[in-house]
Write a structure and sequence with these properties.
The chain is mostly beta strands. The radius of gyration is 12 Å and the shape is globular. It has one domain. Strands 5-4-3-6 form a four-stranded mixed beta sheet, with no helix packed on it.
Length: 84
């Protein structure tokens, strides 16, 4: 399970999360595929859409929840850190 680190676009704090290939719809052929990451910080608690390529690398991210209707599924994961 790769550990990923991003800066939350809502509060500018570091967010850590783990992912597996089961967390992302790679079978649709539509890449990059979205994954919703909820920041577990007590202060933030906001969701960011992270887009991953076929090697589970982050290619871009957006604030909030994007439309996931193009994919079979879009999973929610919580960040690991609970600072703040």
């Amino acid at each position: 399970m790769p550990l990923k680190a991003i800066v939350c676009p809502h509060c500018n704090k570091k967010m850590l999360f783990t992912i597996t290939s089961d967390d992302v719809d790679l079978s649709s052929g539509k890449l990059p595929a979205p994954l919703y990451v909820k920041h577990s910080s007590k202060i933030c608690q906001k969701t960011t859409t992270v887009y991953l390529d076929s090697d589970l690398r982050i290619s871009l991210m957006d604030k909030g929840i994007e439309d996931g209707s193009k994919w079979k599924f879009v999973k929610f994961v919580n960040s690991l850190d609970d600072s703040g």
